[in-house]
Amino acid sequence: MRQLGRLDNFGIHRVERLAGNVGYLDLRRVPVPANAGPAISAAMELVAGTYALIIDLRRNGGGSPEGVVYWCSHLVDEHPTHFNDIFRADTGETRQFWGLPYVPGPRYLDRPVYVLTSSRTFSGGEDFAYTLQALGRAKVIGETTGGGAHPTRPFGISAAVHIAIPFARSVNPVTGTNWQGTGVVPDVAVPQEQAYDVAYAAALRDVLARDELFPRVADEARETLAGLPVTEPVTEHVTEHVTGPTG
Known about the structure:
single chain, alpha/beta, 2-enoyl-CoA Hydratase, Chain A, domain 1, 6-stranded mixed β-sheet, globular
């Protein structure tokens, strides 16, 4: 699995420092950290010096809950942070997922984070976005996601047909529910092809609002912001998390 994961860089499609000192991560899946941990920490090292971060999950089809924990642990401090629970209907067991007290790479703290979503964002990619949104750690920009929160198992119907049956459900400790069927509702709803520009413009405004800023970075941020198709703050959609039991 580790060798196969290297073929697509463990889902880390792109890591970049954008003009204006904004970090950008394009993540196409959420791999198991036992295999992908060094690559994830290396990616975070490359954006560690930026003033804002964009995490692009528009093409992320999912992956490992442990991978979500590993990524999110880089975005919160070392104090215990409860990310998610998964309740198994077959055993009655609830597994809790908490932030890691130690990560080998730098933590990205006290700077804004924007998460891009589309209708194709699914499963573990949704967990990533929903967790950060519920914690107030990131602003989600884009489209409502696919709505797959319940882990499934394949069951054979015939030699050619299998169906996926849920056997567990996610329960977010902040909202008391999850994104099953509803998807992750963005804080700023825009078509997915516009999400990057909207988030980048917001990140550049964050950079320019900093108390201390090198003139070179300030000029770069102003010039880049002026060239984006979105230069004015967009109207935000207030997301109200519904608490209560999941279906």
